[in-house]
Amino acid sequence: MTHGLAVFNVGICRLLRGEPEQALALIDRAIESGWIETWTMRRARHVLYGGRAFCLAVLGRLEEAQRDQDRALHTCPTAQRGTLVSGDALLVARAGQHAALLDACPEWAQLAAQSGRPPQQRTLAVLKALALQATGAEGSAVSEALAEAPALDPGRVDHLAVRWPALAEFLQERQLAARADS
After folding, report:
1. Rounded to whole angstroms, how far apart are CA atoms 15 and 120?
2. Domain of 23?
3. In 3D, which of 124, 99, 98 has the Cα closest to residue 110?
4. 152 and 71 both lie in a single domain
5. What digits encode the pLDDT tens for the residues 10-25?
6. Structure pTM?
7. DSSP 3-state assignment of 175?
């Protein structure tokens, strides 16, 4: 049996490289390996299903993503809830529910900060900035939202925009996309 954790981690790496289809296949393989049913992983199912939901959301498969996100939330210990906020935000943003995202941002930002994971905070800040721009907020508000993101260098969130032209354009406008010639 393939070690599910290694397969899952390779899947996440593929997602971050902008290869969500390959990432999803690897995460599915990790889930199907039976590794999730081990004693250790039963307490961390939310990680696998949250990762799968995130991949599906990046691909624009929102109904499937919502099912997996709900499953992840159902199995997630309260203390680890912050690990799933970027998935929540991505689902809401991809659905074009900008006002709902902005309403939830204060709570999600607090949870993301408690998680201690910069990628969660980075994703949330970028999606908040996109929602602010979409709702007609002034440019300074958008810039302030982006300033909340830790280590937001060009290319750090390109994986979110693989199948999302509006976000890809936003990142290009803000000079946050990786250069095509690099």
Report:
1. 14
2. 1-76
3. 124
4. no
5. 999 999 999 999 999 9
6. 0.86
7. coil
